[in-house]
């Protein structure tokens, strides 16, 4: 009988076989003389374990109303993840301290960046500096009647050379 179902009386002289179900490895039963001992395996093999609101099975750990770590991903359930070490490789998560450092570095360079006067219209840039600003490494721009490219010093020099030659030829 199991758990009292189909119970039957055991009479004097009857043999009682006590053991575990076939294939069961989590519970061991031993008999020594008139003593029967049960012991639980130190390495349990179960389909799932439920304790309170937490369930652990082959798909992962799920805490009802809380975080879960499953084969489909990690859900922090809108809670903070604490004690995250600084990431050292590209495939690691970063922590708030690392993000704050990046934000601070970016803020420190903000006044060095060239920005549009109006970020929406993007029609004018005013360079700072009381005595003006020199632009260097300007690529040769297109010089034509339809061009809106900037020209560089070498282009102006060539134009000045042509003006000087024409002035000399005319004189």
TrEMBL record:
GO terms for cellular component: outer membrane. Pfam families: YadA_stalk. It comes from the Bacteria. InterPro entries: Coiled_stalk_dom, Serralysin-like_metalloprot_C. Transmembrane segments: none annotated. Signal peptide: none annotated. Residues 81-114, 136-169 form the Trimeric autotransporter adhesin YadA-like stalk domain. This is Trimeric autotransporter adhesin YadA-like stalk domain-containing protein.
């Amino acid at each position: 009988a199991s758990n009292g179902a189909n119970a039957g009386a055991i009479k004097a002289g009857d043999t009682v076989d006590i053991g575990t179900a076939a294939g069961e490895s989590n519970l061991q039963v031993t008999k020594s003389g008139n003593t029967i001992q049960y012991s639980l395996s130190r390495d349990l093999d179960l389909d799932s374990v439920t304790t309170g609101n937490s369930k652990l099975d082959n798909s992962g750990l799920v805490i009802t109303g809380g975080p879960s770590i499953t084969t489909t991903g990690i859900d922090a359930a809108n809670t903070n993840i604490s004690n995250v070490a600084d990431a050292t490789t590209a495939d690691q998560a970063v922590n708030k301290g690392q993000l704050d450092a990046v934000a601070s570095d970016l803020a420190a360079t903000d006044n060095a960046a060239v920005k549009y006067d109006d970020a929406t219209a993007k029609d004018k840039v005013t360079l700072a500096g009381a005595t003006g600003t020199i632009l260097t490494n300007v690529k040769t721009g297109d010089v034509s009647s339809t061009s809106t490219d900037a020209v560089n010093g070498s282009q102006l020099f060539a134009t000045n050379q042509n003006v000087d030659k024409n002035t000399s030829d005319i004189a």
